[in-house]
Amino acid sequence: MQEFERIERLRKRVEGTVNKHVKVAIGDDAAVVGTEPDEDHVVTTDTMVEGVHFLPTTMSWYDIGYKCMAASVSDVAAMGGRPIAAVLALAVPEELDFEHLEMVYDGVAGLCKEFSCSLAGGDLTRTSGPLVLTSTVLGAVPKDRALLRSGAQPGDVVFVTGQVGTSAAGLELLVGTAVVPVDSQLELRQAHQRPLPQVTAGQILLDAGASACNDISDGLASEANEIAAMSGVRLRIDSARIPISPAVRDFSRAVRKNPLDYAWYGGEDYQLIGTASSRSFAVALARCESVGVKLTAIGRVEAGDGVVAEDENGTLNVIEAKGFNHFSK
Prior knowledge:
The protein has helices at residues 3-14, 61-78, 98-114, 166-175, 182-193, 199-208, 220-231, 246-255, 259-265, 278-290; strands spanning 22-24, 32-33, 39-49, 82-93, 118-127, 132-142, 157-161, 212-215, 234-238, 272-276, 295-302, 306-310, 316-318. By secondary structure, it is an alpha+beta fold.
């Protein structure tokens, strides 16, 4: 197939994602996207490289497309925004079967439809190296109200959505030989292969008046330290309150590891960590519970710097930002 035939076949796999905000989608030199005058745009981009971010042996081609787009949508969620449109650029090895590429686009379409986000364009090129996917997502938030990492204040509650550490344990399960119950296997695999961005939670937190927010892509330790550094405060975490799935605890026993290690340093959960006043947290908690979103208070904000965690014995430990880092040795 020639280039334009490939593009047309891929376009057809995502044409069902086009929404009212996209005035011109795939087929012209650029997409045209419109939003409301009382909104700000938020824009984010993420790259996934075969062998660095994913392996075809641990993820299906559908999962690869889904997860690439989920990473960018999660960034929009952390700002309290809603995703509107996306573009996807791919550098494709010549030997990759085109059917596999179509499955990648099916995964992209699946995630986009989940959040009414239109895949409005992108780029397709050939490479001699590994498969590389770069997703860029445009979102919208109410004007001048985007959630940032820099707004945490002493006295605020520190919270997380969902459960953390599940994706990292899922990856270790997929590449290892540990034996855990079947239901735990399914939960861990799902968390790693198809993590769900917390868009609804992000909008609830924004409306409730949360002071800071960050998505958990590189591990709870890394994201908490980012909020502490950007806000000029200390986050004090109660380790016993960190929500960890029973499936992660099952797996941790099987591999003889501390389940907190997956929560602190694992990453790719795409949950949210943030801060809010006691009143704003109470409002957000009630609204999250009403729509089935788990929201947990795990600590408080203090004057100072960095992140400390209190263990079951009352001992304080400094939590360093040791999550995933592309350029660490």
